[in-house]
């Protein structure tokens, strides 16, 4: 036998008996051949042949190749966040790079009883091109969806395992799949011996019979032909088995390392069997090429290398797993490769789809080139899948002689929270790096990552989102930092998260562009339901979800601000309507989302929004933290479920905002803050305070409407004295843009409403306005009129001669005097605006010229107005303090806010007035009733605040009824501004002090008499305070009758809760003085009582004071005073005695004094606390031992 055809037998004890080495040095052919159930026979010519053994059931010819691939270490072009300060920089390669051989590959061929294989190199190679491949069951051919595919019936495959769950195929909408299934079952059952009887079986049951174990199939068929099926047959689930390691007699090509591929049974291998080159000529490296086996008419087989339909492979196993359901190893074992363990597992799953229906063959891996040699494989393959069973979308791999040149792995995912489908692309290329040593011949594998958008635009129909569509860009990101094996991560470029450009369309069709970092989340496949949990993704995005909904936290990137800056863009967060719109100046938005397997549903967590009416009314753009109200989310603007058209509510854990004008009450209402708590926003009425009741139109609790807005007189909140408010009673803050004619018309209309019997001058002004409005409309509609100059002149004349004089007459004080003070101020404000607009006729005409030129903004008037008169009720119920009635007249509250700008100078006015009410001090034990005819406060920008307080009669009651005897001495108008009234940030202070004349009758002398009264109305904090005094401690009255005398004072202070302070003192005694010219002296003795009562404390003091003094020529004097007093303290129940002797001597310019005092305390009903009481209870045992041990080491 020629040397080139030699077969080398290797007799080793651990190798199979039929084991041979094929070696041909000329073309580097080195193969191992193993025979399973084969025997060698030598023919008469002495040629050895391999034939199946007698009784062989599965004879196989297995050809083994050296490792076809080398796994090499890859290096990152951009390091990930774990690199610390080197994040984003290229990885520094440590050469030589790590490398590992793949396991050997093998091709297994089926040897039938008729096959004879010449035991030579050419014979073995020839058989490899003729024999059918032995493959694992999952290595099926590509499915060709053709009803004409009725070729020769294949040998019946081994039955699959019977599953216990009944699930006959019912793929909705896939009639073609069902037909294909029946055809396949019919062909296989016919070839199994059933023959034409198969047509007697219901087509729906043929596939189930196909999967029945062969030992039971005949019995099942006989029953089926009789018209019924055994229950064990109908319970068959036609599903693919799980992958398993290929057996020794099955084909397994390991490339890339650890991934085992296999062609189908239709695959064939083409190669040279001999060496044709002349001696000394180059010889081509021996290789075998994957193609498709095609049968000739004579029964021979050739390999079609151009048939791309069945030139496929499938991943049948990965050595990363011990079992198919086992865990995956670490990403970096032993080093980073071009494919990761999860990639290799998913290639197997996507190309074989274990658990899938057998009649729906998954997409295979397309093979452009697959050559096997003894030095490694040449491979160019690509697999692409749309099935969501696994996260892998695409795998492309090019290798030369077992060395990777280009590898592309695409994994599906989405961008959280907006849910746009995206893919993470990992590309590995072999590149020469000139910075490395020996760069001329050093090319290593570099890996980069980037994201491509599969779904650039998503449309939303969700009331939890302020946008109807969101478009992301760019469609392909720059290279991002290495994400490692993270299941979700922030795409980063350099040291920062990559900002996607978001183009969002709001509910009015406006597009808003802003940057946003987004979290990339890998698709959670059916295979990896536990790949990540919703809670993990939410936590990475700084969210937590509980029964109440989402809660914002810090995200996984602590340096990343998850609030998206909108820079004040005006966004329509809900559809607008004639009743109003929901457009807000947006400072920032924070989103949340609900992740699903391959997408997410976004929603607004909160937005920092500027409410237009609040901003215009207060002059401040303070953002409120709001989110969509649950009433709007559930029902939209349904006329029944959301009658109030609420849109937004206060976000979770956010502090409810408030509408407060000026921030302090001295600028916005004096005795109250005319604002309201903001619990949400209505499209129709603006800020609202009770979302639930506003939505359905129920009565609103005023306490919730004005909670936290400050208190009237510092005692009760505004909501406490208001009755129930219907939807029509809730104040509406309307923010509008008015043209000149509408502004003038609105001002005159308001005056006409306030004056039902409008005088002729008001009616005249409205008639003149109608003419002006007609001229305005003509200009605005560009009707045929004279030229612009003529039209302007005509309009100017109309303003000067008719409209302006009529408005001035309407604003006359005599006309407005018919109104209440507050109503007069409102009317004057409206007419002042009208006069301002018309004061300069050329300017007014010029405004109309702007309109004619298509510049309406120049003629617009920004107007925010609130005028509200809610009903009042007594407070509290039972014994009220606030009584909204005076002398039979019902009390009334008027709140008015008017802010204007644009065509006129910016101006704001806030007015608050309470009329006809009284305050009952100490209800239940009345002492004083203070009646108010009017309490009004007006604040206008650029002007001094005005206060008007008009009191009715003061009614002294109860134990203070005696004061009524003196009320004729109190000037009741003394409480009106300006006399004795001061207004500052703390409140209103008003009062008076009246000195009474002395009374002297004979030896009786009463002097130093006075009466004082005061009223303090605080804006916030404490309650109103009323004070009354007869004389004062500093100025007591004096009473003298000859040598006997005395004095005293009385004063009290009270608020609406009761008495806060009462002081009273009276003393009586005698005094005697002698004067001898050169010397004089005096002596006095006085005794008295001092009483002091406070809200929860007090004292009573009795005292005796004796004093004597002597003076000689004014040069020398001496005095002595003895004082003794007893004080009883009501709070402690103690009696305190004090005695003091004071001696003072003065000689010329020198003086000195000596004082000796003594004090004694006598326990009363409440003595001092004991030591135990002072320390309080001790929680631990053995306190004394612990105390001693504390000093044991000292």
What does this structure look like?
With 1194 residues, the chain is α+β, with helices and mostly antiparallel strands. Among the domains are: 161-238, no CATH class; 740-859; 1076-1088 and 1096-1194, no CATH class. It contains 19 helices and 67 strands. A hairpin with a 6-residue loop joins β58 and β59. α2 packs across α3. It starts with 7 loop residues before the first strand and ends with a helix. Residues 9-15, 145-178, 227-237, 662-674, 732-741, 779-789, 846-862 and 972-979 have low confidence and may be disordered.
Number of strands: 67
Low-confidence region ranges = 9-15, 145-178, 227-237, 662-674, 732-741, 779-789, 846-862, 972-979
Helix run count: 19
How large, in whole angstroms, is the Cα Rg?
51 Å
Q: Give average pLDDT, whole number.
A: 76
Strand percent estimate: 35-45%
What gross morphology would you assign?
elongated
State the distance separating the first and last CA atoms: 107 Å
Helix content: 10-25%
Largest sheet: 15 strands, mixed
Quick tags:
1194 residues; alpha+beta; 15-stranded mixed β-sheet; 14-stranded antiparallel β-sheet; 39% strand; elongated
